[in-house]
Amino acid sequence: MLAAGGTTVVRADGPRFLLYARPGPGARRTRSLPATNDWSQPLWFPALSGFEDREGTTWFRVRLPIRPNGSIGWVRGDQVGTRVLHERIVVDLSAHRLRRVASGRTSDDVSVAVGAPATPTAPGRFFVWARVPTGDPTGPYGVYVLGLSGFSDVITDWIGGGRMAIHGTADPADRGHEVSHGCVRVYNPQMRELTDVPMGTPVWIRA
Predict the structure, then answer these.
(1) How far apart are CA 182 and CA 185, in angstroms?
(2) Distance (Å, whole) CA 93 – CA 86
(3) What is the structure's pLDDT at 5?
(4) Catalytic residue status for 181
(5) pLDDT of residue 158
(6) pTM of the full predicted structure?
(7) Within 52-203, where are the H helices?
(8) The 3-state secondary structure of 29-67, one letter per residue
(9) Which is nearest to 37 in space by CA: 129, 128, 125?
(10) Residue 151 CA: distances (Å) to CA of 15, 21, 49, 80, 196
């Protein structure tokens, strides 16, 4: 049901993702989520599993970009489109490293800043929720932002509800340190290499 050797991601066919608590005949819709983010970019949700029920309907169990972190839901295959991604981003918090892995090979491996002790970067499995050029390389978010599906465990009152991100920084001294409010900071010249990371790309943050 899911593609081997890659990550199947799904996109809503309409203006919203229609979500179900359980798959199968008679499934009841429990909620819906917008099919686009705050920048009107189409969202792609990674599928964790999939199957075909006895009526021939395909279902996908997907990660959701909502609190609490780790939330999942089911979508009908006839209400979404699919594609397969062959890359992921892996962040090792203790080593202060970010790796981009494409088709099993590491294409980027860089030193990064992570959350300070009072505002730690939340570990977990997330995905790319937004891709935003800032237009201000010297600003607080550097040259570019990859917004993530996950949220800070301690910050809730910021715009976006404390959503985490991988973003640039103009300060090379940030690298290798625990200085952020929960985001992963990448030095601008290296962040530019990540601007083509597709929407829906899995992001694994490890303690």
Answers:
(1) 9
(2) 23
(3) 86
(4) no
(5) 81
(6) 0.97
(7) 188-191
(8) EEEEEECECCCCCECCEEEEEEEECCCCCEEEEEECCCC
(9) 129
(10) 24, 22, 23, 25, 22
18 token code pair? 């229609």
Q: Which residues contact 126 (CB under 8 A, 6 or more apart)?
A: 63, 69, 148, 149, 150, 164, 202, 203, 204, 205
Give kind and range of the element (H or E) at residue 72.
Answer: strand 72-76
User: Contact at 8 Å (CB) between 153 and 67?
Assistant: no
Q: Which of 96, 167, 177, 181 is catalytic?
A: 167
pLDDT score for 4:
83
Cα 167 from Cα 143, distance rounded (Å): 8
Low-confidence stretches of the chain (pLDDT < 70) are: none
CA distances for 200 relative to 44, 75, 158, angstroms:
5, 16, 23
Q: How far apart, in Å, are the Cα atoms of 54 and each of 133, 173, 181?
A: 46, 57, 48
Distance CA 29, CA 179 (A): 42
Kindly give, in sequence order, each residue whose CB lies less than 8 Å from that of residue 139, ignoring residues fewer than 6 positions away: 170
What are 59's two structure tokens?
């279902």
